[in-house]
Amino acid sequence: MKKFVLQTAKRPTTARPRYVFCLLMISLISGCISHSHAERDPIDCSLPHVDQRLSQCKMVRRASEFSGCLSTADISEHSCLLMDADVSFCSANDSLPITAFFDQNQRTLDCAGGAIDHGWGRVSLPQGIATTQRTRMPAVRLINDQSLSDITVRNCTLRGTNHMGIEATRFFGGELGPDGKVGAGEALPVGHQKLRFENLVIEDTITGIYLGNYSHDVDIHQVSIDNTQRIAIYSEAGSHDVRIRQSLISNNQSREAIAIDSTYDSEVSDTLFVNNREGGINVYQNCGELKGIVCPVIRSTPPNNNRIIGNRFVNTGVSGVQIASRQGRRHRSGWCATLDGRSGKFTDTAEGNLVADNTFVCHEGTSLVIQDGPNTIRDNTVVARQRCVPYEVSTGGHGRSKRHLLDGLQLLNNRIDTARPPRLRNLSDEVTIRQ
To answer: Is residue 59 part of a domain?
Structure first.
């Protein structure tokens, strides 16, 4: 397997160019590609993957070195802290430039109100910070060539990483074969499980929390994520029993705040979304993108039976919630593994989802976009002003010939306060709209 080595860009931090971001995220988030990647040899996805990220750390320390608690006096430059033992910070005043690196089960990081801070500000690097702290590592990282269990991160501020806040990715190269498919009758792979992220503040990162393929039993509780450049929380294919509760997501910049990508039986509840320019929650089935550039995972688990309940969406830009948000998306040749690399329109699937008891307040975009059925949208309150459309029911990029995709969709008892009518396109006779 060809290994990609990322180096710190030698240019002002006020300009974070797209190609640098692509190099950083290409193996994690689809939709970003550059000429430099097109010139590289394809990855051999039949080969086993070995996580070598720790070898890129300039300084590696072990948690077991520190008896008692960890303080600012213990670490002065960026270090990867190998979590071979539980670690607590000494006080809320401690701010450390570390990456907590988990490679064992049953480990806990408790910052006691303190911070992991890599020093990247909202606009530029603060004056006087050491060059060794100009790192492109996450604040917390789970090893990606094995599945971990019983990992807890709590009472922390994770700030300014110029990467992710928490990177819990899982790489299945060599285990799913070169085509990325789970065989007929084969059990689903096991990703990271029993993860607890609670009482956290994540700010000024590229991505907030990234949950890798087939994550299971994940509790994200009372987490505030602010000013991410991309996605606040990304839940990858095959993940299930993911619970995002009593949290705050604000000022997300260039993609939806939460991506529920082929994640099923999960819940987002009692969470406030504010000023997320590109949308609040998108529920969709990724088509296995970037074929030949990263190892695809063909989505065998559509995002069904998820619950989005009791949330508030204020000024969410493009949309508050989208169900089957990639319906009818056109893909060029070689891009989509589900289409076997051929060009064409992808049919998204998201069924049995419940969107209930939410409040939407908007001045632009569309509060609710539903592009597949059967799903239930009930007891929501929508206050749509100015240019905002209260809701859309459509077949997305498909035409009228695909109207059967909406069969079984129900919009019931929603309270709509708007001067604009809803947008209704290609409805089937099996769609029920009753206010």
So the answer is: yes
